[in-house]
Write a structure and sequence with these properties.
The complex is a heterodimer of chains A (490) and B (97). With 490 residues, chain A is an alpha/beta fold. Chain A is 39% helix and 12% strand. Chain B has a domain at 4-42: Histone, subunit A (Orthogonal Bundle). Chain B has a two-stranded antiparallel ribbon. Classes of the chains: A alpha/beta (490), B mainly alpha (97).
Chain lengths: 490, 97
């Protein structure tokens, strides 16, 4: 049996390879990660819960399958952690909210079914901003996750637990959800790879909805190659999600090593203005140089609606949230206020007691934007402006194959730095938000460190349903630079 | 209620069915006022004749085959209900005397 520390430092592909070649078993791998979680999660707090017995039971079944020559593929026996908004039958799903503290999922999400079909050890519920609303994981009702590179700083959010768990080597793979940057921004702040697929690429069935027209589930890993493997497994049309798109899933991991040449990358001038941290700028400049040297053509493009994307997003996302979160009403599957005396009380008091401050702010803001007299000025106007944002991207993609930007304007910030100022927190998503509004795929790839040792991430945005091309461009850089393989000292 | 950068917090909290403490009302009034002021940027955009986008890749009339499938048993459906009795969710009386 291998030493635990040798196992948890490996990438997902290396784990998969090791199990496949009999170097270690799935049970050994699972035990190694469980021991790593016990060792470091008191500091990091990436996990809200994990079911050790259930994970070891799945690992044992995987080893038995392999022994009888019935392996389900490369992910068979490899642990995958899930953001605590993705349903796993019989397991908790709190969405980091008090209102769902006792909830247990009665069914599996489609992505969970797909992971099971691939033999993955589905385990671990990962921390987030309550109902995925936030950019720092400070909005979790169960306490924040800490950035493994500096425990005094946020891991980003909302999928902060999913990003931090991979960075801290507590699991080789995780899934998160991305509504305005909630996969890419924490991936960037934690120094790992995180990808938001095209809207409709991955089924949302069994994902606790935040903003239905923007939400997508996506993978976290140490490398682009691993993210491609995991994305391939969770993608595909699902009749249970009517917005899931009926299009073929290509073998992303197979086309990774086929570079797109000639390839043109666009640099949107609006993203490179004031507000970008100098060290982030320096890292991105080096990325630009790297691609140039490799024969990519880099051109300046314009996305004039960039500054509108944050207000458009917050009008649309809060409107959809206020509607989606109406289901948490104290009646069917949430905690109910003890003080409620009539039906309206049950709703208002249960929600008043069960929701945290950011969720309340957003539900109220959303209700306002949809209310009589304000609908045209806010919601409808935001939807029309959303069309202009999409048009900007369409024009850009007539010229370029992908768009290169930083993922976040700054590296990880300190706890409390932005939590009382909603607008400053909202602006930390300025580079990621427009991708969701246009429905496009985006990936964050680690591209360096600041002088203080904080990770920096670059973002590549691709054309709709062109994940293969996007991953190939990202992998070209990542396989050589491999910043995601650097491990924090914990 | 003044211009667009203000909000009648009691009215909207009631629409959202969320009970707020006096401290929350006070705090949110200020914070949401700032957010609405920030949203005013949208009023300057020329959206004359622009078709609104509800979904990035809209799909219409997504049909499913009309056949019965296994659903939850009542025990499964009620397992998360805060109060239940006789296979039903218990709620406060909703009809006035």
């Amino acid at each position: 049996m291998s030493d635990h520390s040798e196992i948890f430092s490996l990438t997902g592909s290396e784990i998969s390879h090791g199990i496949d070649n009999g170097i270690f078993s799935s049970q050994e791998v699972t035990l190694a990660y469980l021991s790593r979680i016990r060792e470091v999660d008191e500091k990091v707090h990436a996990f809200l819960s994990y079911d050790e017995d259930d994970m070891l039971r799945q690992a044992k079944l995987s080893d038995q399958r392999r022994a009888s020559g019935k392996s389900l593929g490369p992910l068979d026996g490899v642990p995958v952690g899930l953001k605590d908004v993705i349903s796993v039958k019989g397991q908790p799903l709190t969405a980091a909210s008090k209102i769902l503290k006792d909830y247990r999922s009665p069914y599996d999400a489609t992505v969970t079914v797909k992971l099971r079909s691939a033999g993955a050890v589905v385990g671990g519920r990962l921390n987030l901003d309550e109902f995925a609303m936030g950019s720092s994981t400070e909005n979790s009702a169960y306490g924040p996750t800490c950035n493994p590179w500096d425990l005094n700083r946020v891991p980003g959010g909302s999928s902060g637990g999913s990003a931090a768990a991979v960075a801290a080597r507590e699991t080789p793979f995780t899934l998160g959800s991305d509504t305005g940057g909630s996969i890419r921004q924490p991936a960037s702040l934690c120094g790992v790879v995180g990808m938001k697929p095209t809207y409709g690429r991955v089924s949302r069935y069994g994902l606790a909805a935040f903003a239905s027209s923007l939400d997508q589930i996506g993978p976290f890993a140490q490398t682009v190659e691993d993210a491609a493997h995991l994305l391939e497994i969770i993608s595909g049309h699902d009749p249970l999600d009517s917005t899931s798109y009926p299009t073929d899933v290509s073998s992303f991991s197979k086309i990774l090593n086929e570079p797109i040449k000639p390839c043109k990358l666009g640099l949107p001038k609006e993203f490179f203005g004031p507000g970008m941290d100098d060290e982030v700028r320096k890292s991105i400049d080096e990325v630009i140089q790297w691609y140039r040297q490799k024969g990519y053509e880099l051109v300046e493009i314009s996305l004039p609606t960039t500054e509108l994307s944050v207000p458009v997003y917050y009008v649309i996302a809060t409107a959809e949230a206020s509607s989606n979160l109406a289901r948490y009403d104290g009646i069917r599957y949430t905690t109910r206020s003890e003080k409620a005396e009539n039906a309206i009380d049950v709703y208002a008091k249960s929600r008043g007691e069960g929701f945290g401050q950011e969720v309340k702010r957003r539900c109220i803001l959303g209700a306002y934007g949809l209310s009589s007299g304000y609908y045209d000025a806010y919601y409808l106007r935001a939807q029309k402006t959303r069309t202009l944002i999409r048009d900007d991207f369409d024009k850009a993609f007539a010229q370029v194959d992908a768009i290169l930007t930083p993922t976040s304007p700054t590296p990880a910030f300190k706890f409390g730095e932005k939590s009382e100022d909603p607008i400053s927190m909202y602006l930390s998503d300025i580079y990621t938000i427009s991708t969701n509004l246009a429905g496009l795929p985006g990936i964050s790839v680690p591209c360096g460190f600041t002088e203080n040792g904080l990770p920096v991430g670059m973002q590549l945005i691709g054309q709709a349903f062109e994940e293969g091309k996007l991953l190939s461009i990202a992998h070209d850089y990542d396989r050589e630079l491999q910043f995601g393989r650097k491990q924090p000292n914990l | 209620m003044s211009e667009k950068s203000s909000m009648d917090i009691d009215y909207v909290a009631n629409l959202a069915r969320i009970e707020l403490s006096p401290e929350e009302k006070n705090k949110f009034q200020g914070q949401l006022g700032e957010v609405l002021k920030y949203f005013e940027k949208l009023q300057e955009v020329d959206v004359e004749g622009v078709i609104p986008t509800a979904h990035a890749f809209p799909r219409f009339n997504v049909w499913d085959v009309d056949e019965s499938v296994e659903g939850f048993t009542s025990i499964e459906a009620l397992q998360n209900a805060p109060k239940s009795r006789n296979d039903q969710v218990v709620v406060p009386k909703v009809v006035e005397e």
